[in-house]
Amino acid sequence: MSAGETLESYLGGKWVRGEGVETELVDPTKGSVLATASARGIDLKSVLEYARERGGPALRAINYAERAKLLSAIADVLVANRARYEEIAIANSGNTKLDAAIDIDGGIGTLKYYARLGTPLGAAKALLDEKPVRLAKAENFQAIHLMVPRHGVAVHINAFNFPSWGLWEKAACALLSGMPVLAKPASATCWLSHQMVRDVVASKLLPDGALNLLCGGIGSLLDHVTAEDVIAFTGSSNTASRIVGHRNVLARGTRVNVEADSVNAALLAPGCAPGTPAFDAFVKEVAREMTVKAGQKCTAIRRVFVPTERADNVAEALAARLAKTTVGDPRNETTRMGPLVSRAQQKMALDGIQRLAREAKFVSGSADAPKLDGIDNAKSAFVAPTLLRAQNGEGQTIHDTEIFGPAATVIPYKSEADAFALVARGGGSLVASVYGEDRDFLARAVTELGASHGRILAVEPSIADSHTGHGIVMPQCHHGGPGRAGNGAELGGLHGLSFYHQRVAVQGSSELLANLQAQAAPAH
Ligand code: NAP
């Protein structure tokens, strides 16, 4: 695709163009328009029917191992075309090369992981969730729980910040399960998803109707989902509530998974002085999380909890690290942090920082766009790495406000109990990380914080240099948090397939159940 072209959608086995322009895709460094997208006027009812009637049966006709092979082949196509994806990510998302790698390689890595996981499931076409249990006096009347692929379409609605990873982490689980995919990336950054799907479609790997892409607004799509379809959504809580509360989604009982926003925490254990490995690991990780992808990760650290007596040390150490982060055009090799994805996101982030500043004081950065050499402030979408410091954790804005940008607040705590209670005031988050040398403290933190989190990273010195990072979502681990994070569940090895299967209790003769068991692969 050349710059300025209209992005088409791949629907019903062909590339189709919506009417007019719904969204302009903009370079957030230069302000220039890169492409446009529109799905206006496309008949989305027939698109869903096509996927349901063509893609679903074709995928269910092959077994898990064969579908795993397809995932592996998709990954190979993406690897072969990677250079182009990086260019798009830099131009359209303002990514540095490292940011682009997290998105692009994260997507490819997740496909490869599920290809590996699916291969040993072999010729099975269903998963066995539990061993047989006897239900009555008669020994030959028993029950098993099977998981069978659902017969609808997996509708995937994604956020702007991961046009690659968001697309493939969901598609990997759905396709391996035997469900066709209709992916709807966020319009602002759908160019990368578009290019990847274009390459996969051109390779003719997948059965007709198995992979569909909607570039443009959601239109009437949700009016046409049925009880057999599933919707996996990633984005803001506001949009999530519109999807969950959608008239047709409610009336049909369409299954919905929500991955929404999250005010994630990092917690420094008591007694970790500057210069100790735990203190250093903490500061390094917080600074990294604030600046990677310019803080536009749903898992990024927003609240930084430290013992009151360490608040000054932590604020100083973080400010020193952030000062070394070169902000600018991501095309420059020396740049460590690029812009936010759009001027709309920049405004939301700066407004949010202003709200935080009512409860916390600036340590570095500000609620104004930074002045940068060679960058036009009137066209670009930059936000400086911004650290605030609260007097204590009493205000609620610091716990409620997700700045989707490079900003975080240092919040002092008085005691262990105070720390755990303050972290929970985030109302349910995707991830918390805890740093310390006292393993008993780390264990207590896991138990206490586990109730309000989907994932906990516990960093002690022995893994300080080897852990995968607070914000990196690993396909082996559960992704999704309670409460405001959406109560979702994605990934986590084979658990990631559950959403795309129906769990069915089968009551019957032990001979029939043995037969079914022999044809199913273990679900865990
Ligand atoms: P968003 O504005 O909620 O948009 C997300 C997606 O929903 C986009 O594809 C959008 O399409 C679509 N959408 C908009 N209105 C809709 C409607 N009425 N019905 C159905 N879909 C609709 O979120 P965003 O600004 O792209 O992403 C930022 C948010 O995502 C942050 O809050 C972040 O925390 C969250 N996030 C969460 C995770 C996670 O895994 N938990 C991961 C990444 C991001 P258009 O773009 O066409 O409007």
Describe the structure.
- The protein has 524 residues and is an alpha/beta fold.
- Helices cover 35% and strands 22% of the residues.
- It is built from 15 helices and 23 strands.
- The strands form six sheets. It has a seven-stranded mixed β-sheet, with helices on both faces.
- A hairpin with a 2-residue loop joins strand 2 and strand 3.
- Helix 2 runs antiparallel to helix 5, helix 3 runs antiparallel to helix 6 and helix 4 runs parallel beside helix 5.
- It is globular.
- The two termini are 42 Å apart.
- The structure holds NADP nicotinamide-adenine-dinucleotide phosphate (NAP).
Outline the fold blueprint.
Blueprint: E1 6-7, E2 9-11, E3 14-16, E4 23-26, E5 33-37, H1 44-60, H2 64-80, H3 82-93, H4 97-118, E6 127-134, E7 141-149, E8 154-157, H5 165-177, E9 181-184, H6 190-202, E10 211-213, E11 230-234, H7 237-244, H8 247-252, E12 255-259, E13 264-268, H9 277-291, E14 301-307, H10 311-323, H11 343-356, E15 360-364, E16 386-390, H12 397-400, E17 407-413, H13 416-424, E18 429-435, H14 439-450, E19 453-459, E20 478-479, E21 490-491, E22 501-509, H15 510-519, E23 521-522
Parallel strand pairs: 1-5, 6-23, 8-9, 8-11, 9-10, 11-12, 13-14, 13-18, 14-17, 16-17, 18-19
Antiparallel strand pairs: 2-3, 4-5, 6-7, 7-22, 15-16, 20-21
Helix pairs in contact: 2-4, 2-5, 3-4, 3-6, 4-5, 9-10
The chain binds NADP nicotinamide-adenine-dinucleotide phosphate.
NADP nicotinamide-adenine-dinucleotide phosphate (NAP) binds next to helix 7.
